[in-house]
Structure formats: structure tokens, C-alpha cells
Write a structure and sequence with these properties.
The chain has 164 residues and is mainly α. It has a domain of 66 residues: Arc Repressor Mutant, subunit A, CATH 1.10.10. The chain is 56% helix and 2% strand. About 21% of the residues have low confidence.
Length: 164
């Protein structure tokens, strides 16, 4: 990118063209809030919830607790029915999802998400089982190889002993 003659690396070349909603020129000046530029619009809503030291107050905790209040756990009967349906088929067609949701008193989206999460858990457990099988096969193969290597070394020693 070419620079025009007389430009500098600072933002001073851009400041005269920045205007607020009221078309006031931005001018640097010290303020009590610590912001250097006035007239750039009111950004105070962005900083609501910040303490003087810049840390967040408990605003996030309030939102998180409100979300936790809305989140309901499934009952044992609902989970049992979902598990039974998962054993039949771990994929969920739209008709089956709606029917299952109506039977259990859930939203179809809740049923879909439960199935998705359950498939993820199933896949993780399947990978753990597969890893266990592969590791035991590897360990047995390694023991067999080590045994063959010892036999080979002893046979080599016998041959070497007879030749010399």
C-alpha cells in the first residue's frame, strides 16, 4: 500500500474525518472517565457491568443463573424412554422425533439434541472399547515378538558357538 506524502503512522490523519452522530469534531481532551476522545458517540452501554478496575461484576452470573433456572432436567421416565428408543435406532427421523416428543411432553428440538448428545457419548465409549481391543492385541503381539526375538537370539548364539 502506498503512503501519501506527509502521512504518519498515528491516527491523527483520520481524526478530522471521524464524526459522531451529531457531526461534532472528535477532539482529544482529558476526561474524568479516562476516555481521551469526546464526541465519538455514547459507548457507555458497552461498559455497563464493568467495575472501576476493569473487572466484570456479577452481571454474567445473573444471566447464567437465569438460564439455569429455565433449563430443566429430564425425568427418569423420559430418559428411560429415550434410551429405549436409542437402542432401537440411534438415528431419528422427523416423524419419529415429533411423535416421541409428544409422548414425552418435550419439544422436538430437545429430543433431537438428546439423541445427538447420546450419539456423541456412544461414539466416545465405542472408541474407548476399540482402543482397549487394539491395545490388548498390540500387547499380545509385542509379547509374541519379544519371545521370538529371544528365541532367535539364542539360536544365533548356538550357531555362532558351533562355527567358532
Amino acid at each position: 500500500m502506498k503512503r501519501s506524502r506527509g502521512s504518519s503512522d498515528s491516527l491523527s490523519g483520520f481524526l478530522p474525518i471521524c464524526h459522531s452522530a451529531t457531526d461534532k469534531q472528535i477532539s482529544p481532551r482529558p476526561t474524568t472517565t479516562g476516555f481521551l476522545y469526546s464526541g465519538a458517540g455514547d459507548y457507555s452501554p458497552m461498559f455497563d457491568g464493568l467495575e472501576d478496575d476493569g473487572s466484570l461484576e456479577d452481571i454474567g452470573v445473573r444471566h447464567a443463573s437465569a438460564a439455569a433456572e429455565k433449563k430443566r432436567r429430564l425425568s427418569a421416565e423420559q430418559v428411560k424412554a429415550l434410551e429405549k428408543n436409542f437402542e432401537i435406532d440411534n438415528k431419528l427421523e422427523p416423524e419419529r422425533k415429533v411423535k416421541l416428543a409428544q409422548e414425552l411432553g418435550l419439544q422436538p428440538r430437545q429430543v433431537a439434541i438428546w439423541f445427538q448428545n447420546r450419539r456423541a457419548r456412544w461414539k466416545t465409549k465405542q472408541l474407548e472399547r476399540d482402543y482397549g481391543v487394539l491395545k490388548s492385541n498390540f500387547d499380545a503381539l509385542k509379547r509374541s515378538r519379544d519371545s521370538l526375538q529371544r528365541d532367535n537370539d539364542s539360536l544365533f548364539a548356538e550357531v555362532y558357538f558351533f562355527l567358532f
